[in-house]
Amino acid sequence: MQSLVVELGDRSYPIHIGRNLLSRGDLIRPLLRQPRALILTNTTVAPLYLERLAGGLKAAGVDTIDLALPDGEQYKTWESLNRVFDALLVNRCERSTTLIALGGGVVGDMGGFAAACYQRGMPFIQVPTTLLAQVDSSVGGKTAINHPLGKNMIGAFHQPRLVLADTDTLDTLPDRELSAGLAEIIKYGLIRDLPFLQWLEGNIERLLGREPAALAEAIYRSCANKAAVVAADERESGERALLNLGHTFGHAIETGMGYGTWLHGEAVAAGTLIAAELSAGLGWLATADVARIERLFVRARLPVAAADLSVESYLDLMRHDKKVEGGRLRLVLLRSLGHAVLTDEATDAQIGAAIRARRANG
Ligand code: NAD
Ligand code: GLY
Question: Is pLDDT of 248 > 90?
Fold first, then answer.
């Protein structure tokens, strides 16, 4: 097991990464304020991993109740959130009961938001089971649900007490989901860690082949990057925005195409290429840099052509982005490989040109 800490003063918490961790109730028990927890999961993950997690907790003296929500980004809604509140109330959960989110980013984001709201805040723990959740969404305390007009628009910052990433769970992850996780991993290399980007270029096939040592290295280095950014800028007043490379375009794709049509990581990959194209348009990246990013995404089996929405639709959806300030769109772009910046320098015409250049049909 490898461990690191998200340094947030008295709210600091550990991230444990390794094999066979799901049943380690002993790692969870010391962090609980009472020996009781609600495990939130979904109907895909429950039959695979719920028993192992609940069994380990029981052996450590913790009583659990559970709720499995329907699976899918299209269920990251108020209705699902209300089902979590119903379960918490019906089971008389208290403010010191802990909510444990077992699953991918959808379960983690919803569980975290429910925990942030229930009785004005209850403790929660992330047990991420997708590559994307293990390298990104389980760390940092961003929680949310979607709105029909915009992705992750309703939410709260609420940090977990622990992130327990059992890499064995990745054995059952569909290939398409594994690739989606690689998009967020590549992101760290592009925005702030050129040596990691170079490592990924040398090891991407090992990751696709699910070699445990390669996965462990990629997850650890991703979490180290994310933990450093979150520790420096928990509430996204500056540097944390850079973690959104490709996301403003990607969220527009997810919302515009209908939640669940494109996976989040797929939309981020296509969005990152639009951002790279725009960075080249501003004279920051060389054409060869954009081609280099495209090659890595192709090797990771991710889409490199943007969704075929009109430029007007992209711009309209992007104006809901959380980085919009005073009505001005701010985008994360690349000054160079390994160095991202947040900027409002790009005009609508330049953004439109980058979208057209990356759209499948121009
Ligand atoms: P997801 O939660 O939908 O999981 C992907 C699919 O894999 C689902 O069908 C799920 O049931 C299934 N699954 C999960 N674990 C499995 C396993 N071990 N074996 C087999 N199947 C498994 O998607 P995701 O990619 O994990 O997360 C995407 C979500 O995360 C989006 O809603 C995105 O907005 C959010 N996100 C949040 C943050 C954050 O900082 N909070 C960061 C990035 C993404
Ligand atoms: N995934 C973006 C963030 O956590 O800030």
Answer: yes
